[in-house]
């Protein structure tokens, strides 16, 4: 039976470290959070970010913009925050309205204030292994892997999902550790090759957003399984992996909720500290 790889205790430990570090700062770090579109999941994230920020001594400044705002006006708003020396980090909450394309916006967040690590300049630094600000969820996955004490060198790692915020940057972080990294995506499933790849994985990370996409009996005996997915099924939140069945085969497995989620917000705050240090 797998050990449960819970994010909360790690998050609490990291928060204590961040709190101590903030106490040594001469200033209070300030995080600007911009919401354009109202969305129930987003409200939950904002509440959790605010709570975590305040518990660490971070000033969380929330800006709700009109959901009809044009792309150019949003960029102008961000550029004003870039110029504001009292702001150390900027997060743009997802989702955005359909008339705004995040891919056009991310480059306007000053790389030094880009606490999500999604400005192309910060993402580019990942290629060279030089990024100081890492995308939050991939960074949370790496923290969870660290907790298992697994040596990634040469390990067969399969990442399912190739989004810009999770799968792609995570693959780069894994390659940096010399993991043999395979990235699966929609085309892998369409060619019915997903099961074959998953069965090879000594470490499996799934970030898709489809409940029970990964069958428990596909998990390699002794594998480490990190389930990033968040899906609402009835009134329950579940991941992308069949947890119960997978737990019988894996050596470590993250619960959903309670695995990756609690760490992601802490990684955001860690990035804010890094951003603050880059500016003071
Ligand atoms: P996206 O929708 O951006 O990406 C999903 C990825 O899965 C895409 O690469 C997509 O490929 C791929 N995909 C879709 N269907 C299949 C399939 N049947 N087989 C294989 N691959 C498939 O989502 P995100 O990366 O933003 O998030 C993924 C999940 O992780 C979501 O459930 C989200 O809620 C959760 N999440 C959790 C976080 C946490 O802190 N716990 C933080 C961020 C996300 P293609 O685009 O080519 O269709």
Walk me through what this model shows.
- This protein has about 280 residues and is an alpha/beta fold.
- The chain folds into two domains: about 25-110, 3-Layer(aba) Sandwich (Rossmann fold), CATH 3.40.50.10860; about 135-260, NAD(P)-binding Rossmann-like Domain (Rossmann fold), CATH 3.40.50.
- It has eleven helices and eleven strands.
- It has helices at about 5-25, 40-55, 70-85, 100-105, 120-125, 135-150, 165-175, 185-190, 195-200, 245, 260-280; strands at about 5, 30-35, 60-65, 90, 155-160, 180-185, 205, 225, 230-235, 235-240, 250-255.
- β2 (about 30-35), α2 (about 40-55) and β3 form a beta-alpha-beta unit.
- The chain starts with a strand and ends with a helix.
- It binds NADPH dihydro-nicotinamide-adenine-dinucleotide phosphate.
- The site of NADPH dihydro-nicotinamide-adenine-dinucleotide phosphate has 25 residues, from α8 and α11.
Task: Give structural attributes.
about 280 residues, alpha/beta, Rossmann fold, 2 domains, six-stranded parallel beta sheet, 11 helices, binds NADPH dihydro-nicotinamide-adenine-dinucleotide phosphate
Distance between the termini: 48 Å
Largest sheet: 6 strands, parallel
Q: What string gives the helices and strands in order?
A: EHEHEHEHHHEHEHHEEEEHEH
Strand order of the largest sheet: 1-11-8-7-5-6
Radius of gyration, in Å, reads: 19 Å
Please estimate the helix content: 40-55%
Beta-strand content: 15-25%
The rough form would be described as globular
Averaged pLDDT, please? 97
CATH architecture of the largest domain: 3-Layer(aba) Sandwich
**How many beta-strand elements?**
11
The parts where pLDDT drops under 50 for at least 5 residues are none
Task: Give the names of the bound compounds.
Answer: NADPH dihydro-nicotinamide-adenine-dinucleotide phosphate
Q: How many DSSP helices?
A: 11
* Total separate domains: 2
Q: Can you tell me the CATH topology of the largest domain?
A: Rossmann fold
CATH class of the largest domain: Alpha Beta
Relevant CATH superfamily of the largest domain? NAD(P)-binding Rossmann-like Domain
Which structural category fits the helices and strands? alpha/beta
């Amino acid at each position: 039976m797998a050990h449960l790889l819970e994010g909360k205790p790690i998050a609490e430990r990291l928060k204590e470290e961040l709190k101590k570090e903030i106490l040594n700062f001469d200033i209070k770090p300030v995080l600007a959070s911009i919401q354009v579109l109202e969305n129930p999941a987003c409200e939950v994230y904002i509440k959790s970010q605010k709570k975590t920020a305040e518990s660490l001594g971070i000033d969380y400044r929330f800006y709700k913009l009109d959901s009809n705002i044009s792309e150019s006006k949003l960029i102008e708003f961000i550029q004003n925050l870039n110029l504001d020396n009292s702001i150390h980090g900027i997060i743009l909450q997802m989702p955005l309205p359909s008339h705004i394309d995040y891919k056009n916006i991310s480059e306007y967040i000053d790389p030094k204030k880009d606490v999500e690590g999604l400005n192309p300049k910060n993402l580019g630094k990942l290629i060279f292994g030089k990024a100081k600000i890492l995308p939050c969820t991939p960074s949370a996955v790496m923290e969870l892997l660290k907790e298992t004490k697994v040596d990634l060198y040469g390990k067969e790692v399969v990442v399912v999902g190739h989004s810009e915020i999770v799968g792609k940057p995570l693959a780069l972080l894994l390659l940096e550790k010399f993991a043999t990294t395979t990235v699966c995506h929609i085309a892998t499933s369409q060619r019915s090759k997903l099961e074959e790849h998953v069965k090879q994985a000594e470490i499996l990370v799934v970030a898709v957003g489809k409940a029970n996409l990964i069958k428990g009996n596909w998990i390699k005996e002794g594998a480490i399984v990190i389930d990033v997915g968040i899906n609402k099924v009835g009134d329950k939140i579940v991941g992308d992996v069949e947890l119960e069945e997978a737990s019988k085969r894996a050596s470590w497995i993250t619960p959903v909720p309670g695995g990756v989620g609690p760490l992601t917000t802490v990684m955001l705050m860690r990035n804010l500290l890094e951003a603050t240090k880059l500016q003071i």
